[in-house]
């Protein structure tokens, strides 16, 4: 983490307090909290669902065994975890795997699993450190006429990540985890200090703010896969914020937890292509972090007040996962929510 950068949660609070075009709305925060609380209380949603036993929504593609191979898979996927949105609904990058067609983030997971089943050591840092664009294009080949966007950027990420792991961490991200003594914040700092593609920062009101979407989701995915045990045991996992992207804001708008100004809505409706660090883009992401924090706090109060649910865990990771899955499940409604267009390696 850059010494001068505000950490993600502090960044979210600072941005929300100074935002010009995005507002966090308490009534919408409460509305979202009520829905998620009910799902958590009834046991309909938990960290165990990450592995997706019996699922057909994409979670079934995640690793099922809690071992070093799972860590390798997660690190590879999160190094490539960005920019899956399509220019139009009828033209999407798609991957067909085991009789099912996947889009968005899950299409990446399906492509990685397909490559592994073809005997390609795609999760081995020694392999992808020397990967070419042609090789990656084949591994991520589409089952539609639309190819994976930002292919060269993905190659750059993989080459850098593989070389850093080989040169500094004996060729495995497991060794990064071992160096951090069960601290999510130490691992976050290690990741953004050593892997530049994860260093998701911006200038806002003369301060450097850290969002760290992919670095935080990397840690969250390891925690989720290992269910808080072994390599996924972090004493401070609750310090990880939500993963500020272009999809969760749609869910927050759906609940009314976020509100955009008319000038921002006009920009979005005119298909403005935002750039990373653009003021409104930073405000959308920062206010999303703060809105999810407030939702988490509201749920925590509700759980504490319910004798039957006081031991049910909640954190920003679970809130984010719920909202992300809900956005896909209610796609017909959510697709009507404003969506900021951007092509970036950060999300």
In short:
With 347 residues, this protein is mostly helical.
Description:
Helix content is 49%, strand content 7%. The protein has 15 helices and 9 strands. It has a 3-stranded mixed sheet. It has a two-stranded antiparallel ribbon with strand order 2-7.
User: Taking strands numbered 1, 2, ... along the chain, how are they ordered across the largest sheet?
Assistant: 1-6-5
User: Which outline best applies?
Assistant: globular
Tell me the major beta sheet. 3 strands, mixed
User: What's the mean pLDDT score?
Assistant: 95
How many strands in all? 9
What letter string, H or E per element, gives the SSE order?
EHEHHEEHHHHHHEEHHEHEHHHE
Task: For this entry, give a set of tags.
347 residues, mainly alpha, two-stranded antiparallel sheet
Write the SSE topology:
Layout: E1 5-6, H1 8-18, E2 22-24, H2 26-41, H3 68-79, E3 95-97, E4 100-102, H4 104-117, H5 125-128, H6 133-139, H7 151-168, H8 174-178, H9 184-194, E5 201-204, E6 207-210, H10 213-225, H11 248-255, E7 258-260, H12 262-269, E8 273-274, H13 279-304, H14 316-329, H15 331-334, E9 341-342
Parallel strand pairs: 1-6, 8-9
Antiparallel strand pairs: 2-7, 3-4, 5-6
Helix pairs in contact: 1-13, 2-13, 3-10, 11-14
